[in-house]
Design brief:
With about 525 residues, the chain is an alpha+beta fold. It has 13 helices and 32 strands. Strand 8 and strand 9 form a beta hairpin.
């Protein structure tokens, strides 16, 4: 259906189809991964017209029957007991059939036609060694001495030096990307000291601009800010209050932004950036921008800017499949359910099937700061352990709360052992990243992707890292045994070999079940 203009209204693009017997669908938005896959028994709405949820989104759905739904713009998709209806205002919505009638076939059809990999991947250290983020430890109270002490505490307990992310609170104001001298007397000295300790130093940054920023009037006067529909600088509410937004569709705004980051990298030795926010929900389709881009387009432009640095991280993006940037899941709660650990694996699986292979499964234990205010005794150490185990054989693992300083020695031991396990497979993880950069293949793979039409379509609580490591973490409180579906081939766990069977195995709180394919 053509998208024609009729006196202020747009006709709708529409696609309708019926699910095939045994069909499962995956995609749309990573934050809804815990509700997927969708089959004929489910009802679900996924709306990417303007993405209004945290996390990564793409205009892509793929099925285990080799079918693909794709559009160049966001659209609304309703799954209702086997009927699929897609409607959109901005671009045609297409249905495609891969020659290989499998989930792998559908996904790689999408890679080949719509989101080819750009041939890059984040710095190898981000995969080899756990990352450390100061957010849960300090919240907005980031200080020079606190960060140096935090880094030393990591090494003191036997954890390896890696990427150290200094989170929100280091800067003078949003959009004033200089260290606050009241908190950081000598930022260059701090960076040098952290480098000497073996860390790479990453800074949190966002596209918001406070009216207290030194360059606010300059940005406003040169029309480098997003304007609302009335032509005024758009002031938008977000989790830090209400601020203005840099218009990334304006090359001059990008030049200003990169001048800020170059000062930090070239003069102070900063290695890269954690680019937060940038969610489409903070923009409007009727905003007035230099490039006349919609809300999703601004989110995409913010994400694309992350490619400038090998040490990078995004928590939100739109239609950036194939891009060589680390993608962290939206902040998870310190809970077992779908707000926390329960969503970790299924959401990462949807990342992989949306073209975002370089997954970071949020901070171990959760990244919602409110869960960590108050006495340490309220924290669930079993949950920390299982979070850590679930992350250990993901592409990346990231700590924040200094769990190594807490009073539970068992939790500290598990963290050290899982970190060592991650490092042990560092070369293999890098090989998977290199493969993803060339072929687009997910690093974390759904069972159905790797072993099509074997009855694995609905499995989202175990996964494959590449094609050689099968991982089955415990995701439920109090469980000390779990069922594992072993595919064809020879899979080794300890001194036993398993093949093409379903087994129930013991898994104490300090144990991660993982199998290595040996044939």
């Amino acid at each position: 259906m053509e998208n024609r203009y009729f006196g202020g209204f747009y006709s709708m693009h529409k696609l309708q189809l019926t699910m095939l017997p045994g069909e499962y669908w995956y995609g749309g938005h990573t934050n809804y991964g815990y509700l997927m896959p969708v089959n004929a028994k489910k009802v679900m709405l996924v709306d990417t017209t303007v993405v209004r949820s945290y996390g990564q989104a793409n205009t892509l759905f793929v099925s285990n029957k080799g079918r693909v739904i794709w559009s160049e713009a966001g659209f609304k998709t309703r799954f209702v007991f086997g009927r699929i209806t897609c409607t959109g205002r901005k671009a045609k919505i297409g249905l495609y059939q891969a020659d290989d009638h499998t989930l792998r076939g559908a996904y790689h059809y999408a890679v080949d036609h719509f989101m080819p990999p750009d041939g890059t991947y984040p710095d190898e250290l981000m995969f080899r060694i756990p990352q450390y983020c100061t957010w849960i430890q300090f919240e907005h109270n980031q200080t020079q001495q606190g960060i140096v002490d935090y880094a030393k505490s990591i090494l003191h307990c036997g954890m390896p030096a890696g990427e150290l992310i200094i989170d929100d609170g280091w800067q003078r104001a949003f959009g004033d990307w200089r260290f606050d001298p009241a908190k950081f007397a000598d930022a260059k000295k701090m960076t040098d000291e952290l480098h000497t300790l073996g860390f790479k130093v990453i800074l949190w940054i966002a596209p918001f601009v406070s009216d207290q920023a030194a360059d606010f009037q300059k940005l406003k006067g040169e029309n480098l800010l997003v304007l609302d529909k009335n032509g005024r600088p758009a002031k938008r509410k977000w989790w830090n209050g209400a601020d203005y937004l840099l218009d990334f569709s304006n090359p001059a705004a990008q030049d200003w932004f990169f001048a800020c980051t170059r000062y930090l990298t070239d003069k102070l030795g900063i290695d890269g950036f954690k680019q937060d926010a940038g969610d489409a929900m903070y923009y409007r389709d009727d905003d007035r921008t230099y490039g006349s881009v919609d809300a999703n387009g601004q989110s995409k432009l913010w994400a694309l800017s992350a490619r400038h640095y090998r040490f990078n991280e995004l928590r939100a993006c739109f239609q950036c499949g194939g891009m060589g940037v680390a993608q962290r899941l939206a902040d998870k709660s310190h809970r077992w359910n779908f707000l926390g650990l329960g969503a970790l694996l299924p959401n990462v699986l949807i990342q992989g099937l949306s073209g975002y292979p370089y997954s970071c499964p949020d901070m171990i234990g959760g990244g919602q700061i409110a869960d960590f205010r108050g006495p340490a005794e309220k924290l669930d150490h079993e949950l920390f352990a299982r979070y850590c185990e679930a992350s250990a054989l993901m592409p990346m693992m990231q700590y924040s709360l200094n769990i190594w300083d807490l009073g539970n020695p068992e939790t500290r031991r598990i963290c050290r052992e899982m970190s060592a396990l991650h490092a042990k497979y560092g070369d293999y993880i890098i090989a998977c990243a290199k493969e993803a950069s060339q072929t687009g293949a997910p690093m974390v793979r759904a069972m159905e992707y790797a072993y099509p039409h074997c009855g694995y379509g609905g499995i989202t609580d175990q996964y494959l890292l590449g094609d050689r490591i099968l991982v089955a973490p415990v995701l439920k409180k109090g469980h000390r045994r779990r069922k594992v579906c072993i595919p064809t081939g020879k899979w080794r766990l300890g001194d036993k070999i398993y093949s093409n069977e379903t087994v129930t195995l013991p898994c104490p709180v300090d144990t991660l079940l993982y199998f290595e394919r040996i044939d």
